[in-house]
Structure formats: structure tokens, C-alpha cells
Input
Amino acid sequence: MLYRAKAPLRIGLAGGGTDVSPYADLHGGAILNATVSLFATASIEPRDDNRILLDSRDLGECVELDVLDTLPINGQLDLLKGVYNRVVADYGLKPQGFTLTTEVDAPKGSGMGTSSTVTVAVLGAFAQWLNLPLGEYDVARLAYDIERIDLGMSGGRQDQYAATFGGFNYMEFYADEKVIVNPLRVRRSYQKELEHNLLLYYTGTSRLSAAIIDRQQEAFAKTGPANASIEAAHALKQQAVRMKEALLTGNLNAIGPLLDFGWQHKKRMAAGITNPVIDELYSAALNAGASGGKISGAGGGGFMTFYCPGSSRHSVAEVLRGYGGDVRPFVFVDEGMVGWTA
Output
């Protein structure tokens, strides 16, 4: 018997970074994101030999261990171990042998929430195997706790909820890790036009988001009469509100300028979000017809998203390919994490 789950990756459209503490705790954060047809998948197959095999196909890493109550956190597939350790501790899983195989459709460090989406998918596979009583908020919060608390990984709060809920969501973030997910009913015709006009471009480089997020958190914590990082976050929170209005009312030509507005403020939040290569790519895309864009995730590399009105996506794509990266096709998906038995 195989127990499987998959969860979608997301693109952030507005408010990026306002889900990071201490900003979210002190001021409240707001983000608008949407899930796309790139996925993380996880499969569990029980074994009879008292061995645990963890196999990450996309990373090319495989670890075999004895069955233990707690697997060692030592830099080798710690995300997978962290989920197992938490399931054993919280739900009384009797340690037994199994093979856990994972795969994700985007590179690690791509800025699309890959680590969190893998965590959600693995949790979904365990929930399917063990029939765990987990609702959507339970899965997302547990994935967050595993990454941020158990494993000490720096990051925000949006990725786990996007992967679990799926679709277009306006998310609010408050103190005490409180998250409210507001699903948006974006008309299908608006979604199709947005799919046509949004260009998803992989720069060919990944980045260590934790270092950028650490600098962002340090900047948020600084006191003084004027804090540029906090002022930028305030602007990004307003961007999320305006993006929500544009999507719901079909004012899609406002999306490019809104993305540009957010990008100009995002760069003020911390060092390392942009660099000369990213700046050159951004300028080239705008010169070719894009009306705005952004870096995905914390910044520094990975995927970039551009809004290309009219028929400009073809000229923008041609210019960007000249820099050695890839334009990735996608469609929006409404379904979040789903598990099944094979």
C-alpha cells in the first residue's frame, strides 16, 4: 500500500515580507498569493525490516536509518526527519519501517515556498497513512511549527498556508502566530487573462533565503524615529489590499504598476533582496514591455514574476531568455494539499 500527498507551490503577488516577525506581531501583516501548477509530492510505503529510507528525488539525497523514536537532525534531509519526529511525538506513532519519497517541481531556494510545501506534502502523506485528524489550519500550523520552531529555520508564515489551502488567498498575520486565510473568488476569466499576462521566469540561480530573512528581522527590530524597513512593510501591506481590489474587480492592468510599487519598496526592507544581475533583468523586462514585476520569496535569486500587458509577453520572454534563464509555463490551481491511497 502507498500513501501519497501533493501540495502546490505559490507565487506571491503582494505584501511579501509582512508575514515575518517581529513586523507581523507588532503591526499585523497582509499578503496576497496564489498557487500554481508546480507541486511537491510525497509517498510513504510501509516496510517490514525496521529500516527507514528517506529519498529526496529532486535533491538527489537518500538516507537510510534504523527505526528510532527520534531521528537525528544533522543536516541530512532534516525536513523529512522533522515531520517524522513531530508525528511520533504528537500522535503516538509506533516507530516502524517505511520508505518516504519526495519530489518537488522547482529547485530549492527558488523563492516559491518549496521547503514549506514539501513539509506540508509529507505531513499529508503521514496523515493519510495514520488517519490523523488534521484540518487545513492544523496542517499549516504544524508545518510552520516543525520548520520554524523544531528545526529553527528562518522564514515567514505564508508558505505553509498557501500550500495547504490552495487557490487565491488574502492572508492576515497577527501576534501569537495567528493567521487568517481569506479565499478570494477571482473570476475564471480574470484568472485566464492573468495566466496569459504573468510571466514566470527562473533566473537559473537559487539563494539562501534564511540569511536575507534574518537581516530583515534584524531591521524590523531596530528602534528609532524612522525605520525604512518598517515603512517599506507598511507600503507592502497597502499593496496587498490594492492587489485584492484589482483582482476581484478585474482591473488587471493595475497589477503591473502594483507589482512595481511593491518591488521598489521590497528592496528597502533588507540588504541582499536585489543585486546587479536582478536589477538588470528587471530593467530589461520593463524595456521589452512589462509593466512591473518582482522577485519571488525573500529575494536574491530564484524565480521572478513579470506582468506583461497586451501581447508583450512574447518580447519580454525573448529578452529574458537571452540572460540564460527559463520561462516556466503554469496555470493557477484552486486545490491545496490533497492525500490519497494507492
Observations:
- The chain has two domains: 3-185+334-341, 188-327.
